[in-house]
Amino acid sequence: MNKGLEITRGKTKALYESPEQPDVAVMQSTDNITAGDGARRNTIEGKGRLAAQTTARVFRLLNLCGFPTHYLSGGEDDDDNEILVRRCQMIPLEVVVRGVAAGSLVRRKGLQRGTLLVPRVLEFFLKDDANHDPLIEPEEIVQRGIAHPSEVAAMSEIARMVFEVLAHAWRRRDVLLIDLKIEFGRLANGENKGALVIADVVDNDAWRIWPQGREDLMLDKQMYRNLQDVTPEALDRVRMAYEQVAELVGSFPQMRSGMVAMLAEDAGRVENLQEIARQIQVYGLASGRHVASSALTPGYVMQLVQQLDASFARLVYVTLGPPSLAAMVNGITVNPVIDAGVQSAEFVAQAVAKTLAIDDTVLFGRVMLMQANARSAVLQADAQLNVPPPPPAPGTALA
Ligand code: 5GP
Predict the structure, then answer these.
(1) pTM over 0.70
(2) Do 43 and 32 touch, CB atoms closer than 8 A?
């Protein structure tokens, strides 16, 4: 990639200006690996390429779900360890989410390593190498002017959702996500200037992952932290784990094809069917629409369902009609059937998306974000109702 002046350099990456694109930067991962705030340092040939690949694939997944991130493009083989990102002002915090007790939490709280954490534990650490990145409470983040209360709330909610999305992706590969660190920035330019985005990297240094839930099979940087002797053979084992992780993460951003077959009992329900189809499209899902009556054209219902079953691998049916239509379709197919009943179009679309999200992490993330947006709309509406009336203009006589 075409690079301009170096903007900054960290322990494992460097950031450069992008010539002629003031809003954009080039982030380059290096072959360095460090632990203990840089006390242990080594180089693993090819690690930079693997780190850029891993980060690019994770960020592509997050972008597809609809999370705000700084990632634009790059990071794959011919990009020379480099990815293109939107320029940000970084917030000097590490946001850690934990689903299973490990690492510093075990040391600080005396918990048994491997304990399942529900609800997830969320912690902020101040980025301050000299003081070993101390834990910092949300109140102190605000008091010290590091972030606004609304940003602390948004970072917490986004970090929790990112953890669940990545835990879902890993679980599908029989790997348990233990914990995760992400960082945020504020967009430096453009129409969303100041908006919070997930920034920095999310690579194999930033999480703990245990295949089959077994700590002894770990594939992440903890392998390197745990080394008694840093021998060339040991570093080679670490490199192989990083390679395996980059490869596994390769399919994270792939949405699986899914089809929604919608059957209405009669013409009077077509408008409702179209509205559900529009809501289904919000999740990026395709739908096929039909009118087929369990009472008047049962043979057609039978033929249609058999044809659809034979044509699509991941298929969900939505029926709009009397219980007899749902019962009939349900009796013919082995695929899931959702009876729209009296539910709203949004509800039905979400039920469809949830069904297909079981083995599709992009959809899983989209459902999570839709739910979060719906929650925040409720809270905003409530806050709006309780806004105190504006003070009277000066000079206005009080009744
Ligand atoms: P812990 O606080 O248990 O040491 O770390 C919690 C999680 O955050 C782990 O997944 C760990 O890899 C990650 N983490 C903590 N500090 C750093 C850091 O300085 N850099 C990176 N890349 N990850 C970190």
Answers:
(1) yes
(2) yes
